[in-house]
Structure formats: C-alpha cells, structure tokens
Specification:
Keywords: Transferase. The chain is globular and about 50 Å long. The protein has two domains: 101 residues, 4'-phosphopantetheinyl transferase domain (Ribosomal Protein L22, Chain A), CATH 3.90.470; 102 residues, Ribosomal Protein L22, Chain A. The chain is built from six helices and eleven strands. It starts with a strand and ends with a strand. It is an alpha+beta fold. A five-stranded antiparallel sheet has the order 7-11-10-9-8.
C-alpha cells in the first residue's frame, strides 16, 4: 500500500499523503462507501479521479475513520462526525488529507507546472515576484502561493472570497518551509499558519487557523 508520507504537524494535527499506483479494483477492496459517495464515484468519468477518491478513503482509514464518518456541508466542505477537522486534496497521482482535533485546517497538493506563470496574475500581485530570474524557482514559489490560497479557501469556505483581493500570503524562503497568511473578508480578519513541502515535482501546502 503506497502510503507515501505521514507528517505530525503538532500534537493535535497530522497530514497523510498517498501515492496512487494501484488499480481501481485494488483500491476498492475493504472500502465501504456510503450511498452518497457511491453516487459521487459513479459520476466521475475519469478513472484517475475514481482511484484518487478511493485512495482518500484509505488515508481516512489510516487516521481511524471510515467513509460514513464523513459528511459535506452546503459549500462542499468536509466534516467528521466526531467534530475533528478534516481537509482533502487530490492532484494527479497524489492525494492527501489533514486531520486535526483542534485547529481549522486546509490542504492542497499541486503539480508544479509552467501553466501557473500564465494564470499568476489572477491570484497574486505578480510584480512582487519580478526579482526571481530563475523560471523553475518562480514556478515553485507561485505554486506554493497558489496552494496556500487553495488551502485557505477550503478552511474559509465562503462564496465570494477572492484569492487576489481577500487572501494575503506573507513572503517566505524555500528553506523556511513555512509562512503566515491573512484573510480579510467583509471586515473580518483571520490569521493562519502555512507550511509546505515539495516531492517528485509536486507541492503540498497545509494551513492551520491560528
């Protein structure tokens, strides 16, 4: 079973990462889906999405949960029945969850791709990164910023929240593997801890509400 990585963030919070290498049939073994999730899977045309969906249920099992412990609210945000906090991500052949007994949490895994250079202006003031001459470094940095904002959006879960106007990720170095971020929306200011890691051309970012 390719459980790729477990990260103990603090005494209350863990990150679980899966590398999806198994077939859909293999991943279906020992997984009992609710009717709601069976219907969701039936609507997925991509086999990769179905495999990712199933691998997340294996990650939940690693954290001590089954599919029936999970519900989604009207914004599509996942919740655990026991009141613990969870966030879920899927990108290509990597999936991940973060579970916390205390903090509101969000997670995002992204493939590092050149495409991000074309869309950067939509989610961050690109002029802040003009001093980065190395294209690979710029792709890595922008992917971390994008992943941070995705993770924060998953925590906040409010329609109308704008990546570029409402979410501010503080500058960081790659070596720090961490930063902070603020969300200012409708006069409400909230602060978050951000941590990130890179592996096999992918970036994983996770956020905790301070």
């Amino acid at each position: 079973m390719p459980l790729y990585k477990i990260v103990k963030v603090n005494k209350d919070t863990k990150v679980y990462i899966w590398k999806v290498t198994e077939s859909e049939q293999e991943l279906s073994k020992a997984i009992d889906l609710t009717q709601y999730c069976q219907n969701r899977m039936l609507g997925m045309k991509s086999e990769m999405h179905r495999r990712g969906f199933l691998s997340i249920r294996h990650l939940m099992a690693e954290a001590g949960y089954v599919d029936a412990d999970l519900r989604y609210d009207e914004f599509g945000k996942p919740h655990l029945k026991d009141g613990n906090k969870i966030s879920i991500t899927h990108s290509n052949h990597f999936t991940g969850i973060i579970v916390s007994t205390k903090n509101e949490v969000g997670i995002d895994v992204e493939m590092q791709r050149e495409k991000i250079l074309r869309i950067a202006h939509k989610f961050t003031p690109i002029e802040e990164y003009r001093t980065i001459a190395n294209t690979d470094a710029l792709i890595r940095k922008l992917t971390i910023v994008w992943g941070s904002k995705e993770a924060l959006y998953k925590i906040y879960a409010q329609q109308g929240l704008s990546f570029i106007h409402h979410i501010n990720v503080k500058d960081f170095t790659f070596d720090s593997a961490a930063t902070t971020a603020d969300i200012l929306y409708h006069g409400d200011l909230s602060t978050y801890q951000i941590r990130f890691m890179e592996f096999e051309g992918f970036t994983c970012v996770y956020a905790l509400r301070s």
